[in-house]
Amino acid sequence: MKLSVVIPAYNEEGSIKSSVLEIHSTLVKNNISHEILVINDNSKDQTEDILKNLMLEVNSLRYITNPGANGFGYAVRLGLENFSGDCVAIMMGDMSDMMGDMGHMMESGKMTPEQMSEMSKMMGDMSGMMKQMSERMGRGMKKAQ
């Protein structure tokens, strides 16, 4: 089974390299077949250049620059449309998700890649719903003005 880790990233030049390296290291240590897919959400900093160089170091890394509408929800959706694994996890580019915790949970048998994928999908769905609610509230407020 192959795990895809999708990372939406916007202006993450200060953290994307260490994040990718930590994720890769944890997955290799746990002998988990994987890909790391970073969605560069049209970053204005050096995120894309760092990813290009990092691909030479991490053979399981690939990235896509989001060509359309930008924002967290759109980046997550693009990642979910383009991952190649059997299951998927969504993690943040600033490592606000702790990869070591995920590795520990898998090592201890507390969480399988399939369970991790289901949790990740639910979080992605919740993010999409929150974005829709936010957009609707924003439109409603504009109409009220």
How does this model look, in words?
Strands 3-2-1-4 form a four-stranded parallel β-sheet, with helices on both faces. The protein is globular and about 35 Å long. The chain has 145 residues and is α/β, with parallel strands linked by helices. 51% of the residues lie in helices and 16% in strands. It has five helices and four strands; from the N terminus they run βαβαβαβαα. It has one domain (3-144): Spore Coat Polysaccharide Biosynthesis Protein SpsA, Chain A, CATH 3.90.550. The chain has helices spanning 16-29, 47-54, 72-82, 99-107, 113-144, and strands spanning 3-9, 34-40, 61-65, 87-90.
How does the helix and strand content classify structurally?
A: alpha/beta
CA radius of gyration:
16 Å
Helix-strand pattern, N to C?
A: EHEHEHEHH
Gap from first CA to last CA:
53 Å
Total DSSP E strands: 4
CATH homologous superfamily placement: Spore Coat Polysaccharide Biosynthesis Protein SpsA, Chain A
**Which geometry do the CA atoms define?**
globular
Count of separate DSSP helical elements: 5
CATH architectural grouping: Alpha-Beta Complex
Strand order in the largest sheet: 3-2-1-4
Please mark out the parts with pLDDT under 50 across 5 or more consecutive residues, or reply none: none
CATH topology: Spore Coat Polysaccharide Biosynthesis Protein SpsA, Chain A
Highest-level CATH class? Alpha Beta
Major sheet, described briefly?
A: 4 strands, parallel
Total count of domains: 1
